[in-house]
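Let's practice the habit of predicting before peeking. Look at the sequence and jot down your guess about where helices and strands might fall. Then scroll down.
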Amino acid sequence: MDAADSFQLAASAAAFHHLCGLPALDGKPVLLVLNKIDSPRVLARGDIEATFDIDAARAVLGARLTVIEASALTGANIEAVMKWTRNAVLGDEDRGRR
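Done guessing? Here is the structure:
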């Protein structure tokens, strides 16, 4: 989600909660990337977490939910996003082989 776009914050949160409730995501890991942390207009993480009701999302998703602050422009934490994605994909493949 665009962590610098206060106008779309509520819409992003609604889309996030909608997606998390889809049956196709049952048991799947979920990554929420707070992008554009390099922006001078970046919103406070606490404000984003409150709007996204991260506590409620964690109550439902538990350890399956990961939140990473990143900047595609500067590359900040992009490696963490890639590592999470790689682990999530390989984890799904491992489960499929059993």
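How did you do? The first strand starts at residue 30 and ends at 34.
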